[in-house]
Structure formats: C-alpha cells, structure tokens
Amino acid sequence: MMRRNRSTTHRATPSPLVVLISAGLMLALVGLVFWPRHSKKNLRTADKPTLHRATVQPTQKHHVQPPVNNTAREGELRFYQGTVRGALPSSMRDSLSREDAKFLSALAARLLIWRLDLRRDLRRGDYIRVAYKPIEEQSRFEIQAMTYKSLKHRQTFHFYRFKESGRKFAAYYDKNGRDIELQLRNTPMREYEQVTSILKMRRRHKGVDFKAPEGAKIYLPWRARVVRTNWNMRYNGQCVKVQFFKGRRIHGLFLHLSKVMPKVRRGAVLPAGTVIGLVGNTGRSTAAHLHYQLETRRGRVIDPFDYHKTYHRKIPSRELAMFQSYRRQLDRQFGQHTRK
C-alpha cells in the first residue's frame, strides 16, 4: 500500500510579499467602486446655485423688474412703472407675475378711486409708477408712493404714505399733505386703516368698506331705531339694520360684525354715538372690515359720501416739514429707479 507524502497534504503558506500585493489590489478595487459616488456627490454640491438678492434693473420697455427672490425681506422697497394698455392687472403683467399684478393693481385701485372713475377714466397710454414693499399680510404689498398720469384729465396724481405721530394708522396724502381719502362726518368708524371700496369702484357693491382690526368699535352716526339684527348671516355675518331719525329716515346697514352689542335689539331707540357692535370677518368676507350701507325704505342705495357731510384732513403744520422731506426722498428714489 502506497503512503502519502505528508508534504503534499498541507497547503503552502503564502509569502509576506504575496499578502501585501493582494491587500493592495483589494484596496484599489474598493476605491474604484466608491470614489465615483463620492465624486458625483461633491460635484452636485459644487454645482448647486447660491441664491442672492437680485438688483432691480429696468428692462428695455422701461419696466422695473421685481427681485428674483420671491421671499424678499419685509421692508425691501421695489419699484414698478408701466403704461396702461387696458385693465390695470393685465397692464401690470408685462413685468410682474400674475399674482403680484393682481395684488398690486388692487392696492393701486384703492387710491385711484379718489381721483378717477375706474370704469370710465382709464385710457391706453396712461402712465403709472409705484414704490412698494412686501409685507406679511393678506394684501401682500404696501404702497409707499405712487404717481398716475391721466390722459383724460391731463393731470398727474401723486400719492404718498405717511403716518402722523399720535395716529394709529398711516394714510395717503398728495404733494401738499392733504389726505387723499374723503372723511365722513358722523362716521361709523372713528379708527380705521383705509376705505377699501366705495360705490363707484364696483357695480354690484352697495356700500363702503372700512378696513379695520377685528374688534374695532362701530358707532351709530345718528339717533336711530333698530329694525333687525343678524339676518341672512351666511352672507351678512353678524349684522345690524337701523332706521335713522334724520331727514328722510333712511336705513343704515352694518355687516360682517364680530359682535352685536346686547342693547342692540329690535325696536330699541339708541342715541347717536352708541357703540352698536365690533368689526369682524363674518359671513361672506375675506378680511376684517365694516360694510356700511345706506338705503331708502324701498331699497334704493344711497352713497354715504353724498349723504354724510365730508371733509379732507391735512397733515398738521408741526409735521408738514417732516412729510415734505420724506416725500422728496421718495421722489428721488423714483428718479433713480424708474424712467420713461
């Protein structure tokens, strides 16, 4: 029987040189597998653009483009200028996004209603300039200054936002410091931010809208008898209807209230100046405001700015110099950022 040679029954032990070469090859293979992934990741990181605040530059059409960064910081002043070619929103879409044009044109219209009939007076070729800034509110923007050159009236209208000391809200004034808005005597709102709609602004709108914080007090303009409260609440929200003991004894309607005061009951006779409710956002409403409407007993709508006595406020002489300095500053900025 043949014996096996013991030297052939055991595996040969590899030399140290072979071990080192094998280890080196394995490391090289691992590097080839993982290096492309790491390299691509670095390339993607390096190629990622960095977002910077854009510099506002006029286009060839002389429109000023808004900053590319749509999340611009609150307070950054932007400039728009353009020629009216139809309705304001469509005209502004030449250099603004559809949404920005919608909001900015609505704010511009709130000022223009005090100088123009928006349904009849706008002309192709009218020229508008607006200085505005983004704000963290539903309206999105806040106009700081605006000029509108009307071909029909052959006149340029100026609007400047300014807050007097001691007043809760800023207002818009002309170049001489005269309030743009008409003020109502015996007003139902003693503190409000702005009149956002009047009868001449929208055909189907039957009253005046006072933009005010929720909870602001609503006052009875004249002595009146309460006709009813809280009807058609899906549309009106909490509401009050009264009949004034004045002249033709017309009716007054107060809509979208957050609260009707307990003493405001059907048949109650209340003196002028009575707080009848608080401003709200109830019913068919998109923001806190008071809808104030006047009508005859047969339902014919009356314009409050025709029925009430009215006046224009002026900036007090002690603050007029400050206003004029601020106005000139805005005019210089208009000159730097817009041109025709």
Q: What is shown here, in short?
A:
The protein has helices spanning 16-47, 88-92, 98-112, 233-236, 304-307, 317-337, and strands spanning 78-83, 127-134, 141-150, 155-162, 171-173, 183-184, 194-197, 208-211, 217-219, 224-229, 238-244, 251-260, 269-270, 275-279, 289-295, 301-302, 310-311. By secondary structure, the chain is α+β, with helices and mostly antiparallel strands. The chain folds into two domains: 74-180 and 313-339, Nuclear Transport Factor 2, Chain: A; 185-307, Distorted Sandwich (Glucose Permease (Domain IIA)), CATH 2.70.70.10.
Task: Explain what you see.
The protein has 340 residues and is of the alpha+beta class. The protein has 2 domains: 74-180 and 313-339, Nuclear Transport Factor 2, Chain: A (Roll), CATH 3.10.450; 185-307, Glucose Permease (Domain IIA). It has 6 helices and 17 strands. It is globular. Mean pLDDT is 82; it is low at 1-12 and 32-73.
**What count of helical segments does DSSP give?**
6
At CATH level 3, the topology of the largest domain is Nuclear Transport Factor 2, Chain: A
Structural class by secondary-structure content: alpha+beta
Q: Which runs of at least 5 residues are low in confidence (pLDDT < 50)?
A: 1-12, 32-73
Cα-based radius of gyration, to the nearest Å: 34 Å
Describe the largest sheet. 10 strands, antiparallel
Which percent range describes the beta-strand content? 25-35%
> What is the overall shape?
globular
How much helix, percentage-wise, in residues? 10-25%
The CATH architecture of the largest domain can be named as: Roll
- Which series of helices and strands comes N to C? HEHHEEEEEEEEEHEEEEEEHEH
**How many separate domains make up the residues?**
2
Specify the CATH class of the largest domain: Alpha Beta
Number of strands: 17
Overall mean confidence score, pLDDT: 82
First and last CA, distance: 116 Å
